[in-house]
Amino acid sequence: MSNEPSIENPTPKVKPSSPIRWGIVGVGNIAGRFAQGLNFVPNTTLTGVWARRESESARFAAQYSTQAFATFEEMVNSIDALYIATLQDSHADYALRAFAAKCAVLCEKPAAVSAIALKKIQDAATEANVLFMEAMKPPFFPLFKRLTKQLADEPIGDIKFVRAGSSIPDAPEDHPSFKLELGGGSLLNIGIYEAFLAIYFLGKPLKVQTLGRVGESGVDIFASLNVLHEKGISQLFSGLDVDGKGDAVIAGTKGSVTIHENWWNPSRATVHYVGGRVVELDAPFEGGGLNYETDHFCELLRQGATESPIISHVLSQQMISILDVAREELGVVYPCAIDHTFE
Ligand SMILES: NC(=O)c1ccc[n+]([C@@H]2O[C@H](COP(=O)([O-])OP(=O)(O)OC[C@H]3O[C@@H](n4cnc5c(N)ncnc54)[C@H](OP(=O)(O)O)[C@@H]3O)[C@@H](O)[C@H]2O)c1
Q: What residues does the GFO/IDH/MocA-like oxidoreductase domain cover (predicted)?
């Protein structure tokens, strides 16, 4: 037998005893939450950050007691794992440059603006034999794990329906979500979470039907989707102009679950069984919540894995594919420069 590392079993790059050295590209809202969350992930360190505006990089580095790298390349050559916290139009660019330095990547959602762009990222990660995962946080929360155990111990029968949605009424006019050229719109910014939940419980999407509203800038302001999956139907919505409650319902033949708002940062759920039994699940989270997916990613990195078994490449492809179809049905077209990155 050959001792050469294979794609299935590559050589772990980080020793169990060494802290995993993280870097962050982009220093906005979510980068701050990630940096705070890293304090809750054992055996990790924030080695440094890089942002395109030097002053912002320096501000963030001072705030989180780390260094501001002079260049992106210098950073990815000095770390084990990169957290991509820029807007989605640039995720592919930074991911590919990180893979070139053999650096693992945890990439904010949506990992790319289209299935084509995502495939390029995933192919490049596979080619480089490095770990890549979309930062889809819900399944790593303590509540989600409690719920999974509850449903294994006391199933709700065959799960055939998922309803999930969220809409925010008060995004400022200059928010990137309204900008077509940045991959804006409610689907990519919010709907990706809903697509995850539906696929997680109902399997592969087979057909998508969409109604919605497109705003003046050309992005989807509201989208309502009916999706046919292998195991059932989901009803999903995302919006940028109305106040929509962010809870989720998972319905089976012997009961149903409500994950209370905001379901993508879950801490409470109610399980109703046919016959009247009700089980309340309560599992507060610490560290802001991004720390759980980060912990999972660090474990994968130490094992030498190149893909998460939970947020797999296939799952990420299925999520973005639902949104691709919905955008097409609404007539939302991103500029080629971001949709077909690196052609
Ligand atoms: N997981 C979650 O809970 C969650 C929550 C919110 C957002 N997100 C996702 O996280 C990502 C960032 O969102 P955010 O709310 O943190 O946005 P934000 O506050 O606007 O921050 C974005 C950061 O990325 C930088 N940036 C944008 N485009 C860039 C480019 N082409 N090259 C280099 N830097 C660039 C910005 O730099 P400048 O200041 O120079 O523009 C800024 O530092 C989005 O993909 C979003 O969907 C995830």
A: 144-257
Same domain, yes or no: 119 and 209: no
Query: Distance from the CA of 88 to the center of ligand 1, in angstroms?
Result: 8
| d(CA 86, ligand 1 centre) in Å | 4
Instruction: Specify whether 213 is located in the same domain as 193.
Output: yes
Distance CA 282, CA 316 (A): 28
Range of the domain at 197: 139-288
Question: For a pLDDT cut of 70, what percent of the chain falls above it?
Answer: 95
Structure tokens at 193: 């979470």
pTM above 0.85, yes or no: yes
Residues 168 and 272 in one domain: yes
Q: Which residue's entry shows tokens 């109604």?
A: 211
CA of 254 to the centre of ligand 1 (A): 42
152 and 92 together in one domain: no
* 186 SS3 class: helix
Q: Which of 163, 192, 140 is nearest to 310 (CA)?
A: 140
197 shares a domain with 170 = yes
What totals of helices (H) and strands (E) does the chain contain, helices first?
11, 14
Average pLDDT value for residue range 85-106 = 97
Closest CA to ligand 1's atom 3 = 30
* Tens-place pLDDT, residues 116-141: 999 999 999 999 999 999 999 999 99
Give the residues surrounding ligand 1 with Cβ less than 6 Å away.
26-31, 51-53, 56, 85-88, 90, 108-109, 135, 137, 176, 189
- d(CA 330, CA 188) in angstroms, rounded, equals 13
Ligand 1 atom nearest 189 alpha carbon: 47
